[in-house]
Each structure stands twice: as structure tokens, then as C-alpha cells.
């Protein structure tokens, strides 16, 4: 989006950073095809997030929203692990190119159980 002179909000940046953190961790550890390990990484990153207690309300709300949406999206990625690597990477590319509204809408349509 930034490369195409489209505005990028702080929420969009935080959301993408959360997704990138999960994808990078699983890729670096070579876990993209191991559902159990991907779930463990997901749990470490998303199951009990901790936020700086000194954050202003607006910033805290943004971080919490980004974490919630990234958590759901990354659970969806775990569910894709039995598909080809090409499908996985295509999904990541598609998601990356979406604007904030489209990313949130995409995640809202996912049937992912957040209770994990």
C-alpha cells in the first residue's frame, strides 16, 4: 500500500506486524508444515498477550484490536498447513496487498475458533 501511495493506518501496520511475526517465526523454525508446532507458536504469540500498562487508551485499543485480528488470521493460516506451500504463500501475498478495511473484512469472514 505504501508503495502505491495509499495511506496506511497505524492499525494496519500493527496488524501486519503481528501476522509477519507469526509467519516469520514459523518459517525461521521450519514449522510451516507442522500444525502442532504452528499452534504452539500461535499460543506463545496470541493466547495471553501482554500490553504495556502505561499505554494511552487509544494505543492500547489499537494494539488489542490488531492482536485479536492477527490471532484469528494466523489460526486460519494454521488450518492451511495441509495445503501446498504455494497456496500458503499466495494467501499471504493477497492479504499483504489488501488495505485495512479489506484485511479486517477478510478476517471477519473466516470461520476460525478463537477458543483454540
Question: How would you describe this protein?
Answer:
The protein has 116 residues and is mainly α. The protein has one domain. 66% of the residues lie in helices and 0% in strands. The chain has 5 helices and no strands. The chain has helices spanning 10-28, 35-47, 57-79, 85-97, 100-108. Helix 1 packs across helix 3 (57-79) and helix 2 (35-47) runs antiparallel to helix 3 (57-79). The longest helix is centred in the middle third of the chain and has 23 residues, at 57-79. The radius of gyration is 14 Å and the shape is globular.
Concise overview:
The chain is 66% helix and 0% strand.
Indicate the radius of gyration in whole angstroms: 14 Å
pLDDT averaged residue by residue: 87
- Overall number of structural domains: 1
Q: What string gives the helices and strands in order?
A: HHHHH
Write down how many β-strands occur, each being a DSSP E stretch of 2 or more residues: 0
Range of helix content: 55-70%
Number of helices: 5
Amino acid at each position: 500500500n505504501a508503495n502505491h501511495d495509499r495511506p496506511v493506518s497505524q492499525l494496519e501496520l500493527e496488524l501486519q506486524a503481528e501476522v509477519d511475526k507469526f509467519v516469520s517465526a514459523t518459517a525461521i523454525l521450519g514449522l510451516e508444515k507442522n500444525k502442532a508446532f504452528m499452534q504452539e507458536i500461535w499460543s506463545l504469540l496470541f493466547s495471553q498477550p501482554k500490553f504495556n500498562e502505561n499505554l494511552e487508551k487509544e494505543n492500547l485499543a489499537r494494539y488489542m484490536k490488531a492482536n485479536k485480528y492477527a490471532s484469528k488470521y494466523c489460526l486460519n493460516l494454521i488450518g492451511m498447513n495441509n495445503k501446498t506451500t504455494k497456496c500458503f504463500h499466495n494467501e499471504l501475498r493477497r492479504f499483504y496487498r489488501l488495505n485495512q478495511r479489506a484485511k479486517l473484512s477478510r478476517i471477519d469472514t473466516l470461520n476460525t475458533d478463537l477458543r483454540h
